[in-house]
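Example 3.2
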Amino acid sequence: MLLQQLREMETDGIVHREVYREVPPKVEYSLTEFGEPLNSALLPLSERGEQHMARIGAVHRCPKHCAAAT
C-alpha cells in the first residue's frame, strides 16, 4: 500500500525517487519543489500527533476493551 502511494505521488510530481544500484537495493524519496508546500500543510497534523503521542501509544498497546474504558 505504501509503495503504491509513493508511486502515485511520484507520478503526480510530489516526490522524487532515487534508486541506488547496490546490494541490498536502496531507494530514497524526497519532496520535489512542487511537493514542498505540503510540509506547511501537514505541520498542524504532525504537531497534534506529537502532543497526543502518549495517549496514541497507550491505545496501541492496550487491548480493545482498555480503549473503551478511557
